[in-house]
Amino acid sequence: MPDGIIEHLFITGAMSQPMAPQASLTALAGKGIEGDRYLKGTGTCSKKPEPGRQVTLVEGEVLDWLKSEHGLTVRPEECRRNVVTRGIELNPLVGRELMVGSVRVMVHRLCQPCRYLEKLLGQPNLYERWWDKGGLRCEILDGGIIRAGDRVKAL
Question: Chain centroid to CA 107: how far?
């Protein structure tokens, strides 16, 4: 499987707040991304903690596909994911370990879209079109720094 590249990085301190672009993310093993809502316990699903909520990834190609095939515009900063990749197919990586830059993660499950995001973005039918293409939910096994331009590769 070919490696991918990290195109964009984002965090937000609380649910519903805009995602803020970052040049790098500090990943804390077993905890989450420094400054992000899920590490702080202020995310939409923070009342249902699980290790797979520590960092999320999504394919930039899927955001392009939503626009070209369905006329749905979801900009990278709107997708509510921490890491936007390019060049690597993410879905087959469920249950595997990845290197995201220098950070080792375990992929727990797909990161399905929600009706909340569809409503937040004012994009009817986004939920159905994006289903099973919304990215990955991961646990941080070994912390470190993730930078835009870093590689993403399956182990």
Answer: 11
First to last CA, the chain: 10
Contact between 83 and 9 under an 8 Å Cβ cutoff? The reply is yes
Q: What average pLDDT score do residues 118-123 get?
A: 89
pLDDT of residue 59: 98
User: Could you tell me where the DSSP H helices lie in 1-154?
Assistant: 37-40, 60-70, 115-121, 126-130
CA distance 33 to 27: 5
pLDDT at residue 142, as a whole number: 98
How many domains, in total, are found in the chain?
1
Give the whole-angstrom CA distance, residue 54 versus residue 49.
9
- According to the per-residue pLDDT averaged within each range, which of 38-47, 113-122, 126-135 is highest? 126-135
What domain range includes position 73? 4-154
Rounded-to-integer distance, Cα 102 and Cα 87, Å = 18
**CATH number where 148 lies:** 2.40.33.20
Written as six digits, the tokens of 123 are: 């994009």
How does DSSP classify residue 51? G
CA-to-CA distance for 128 and 70, rounded, in angstroms? 11
Enter the pTM of the model: 0.93
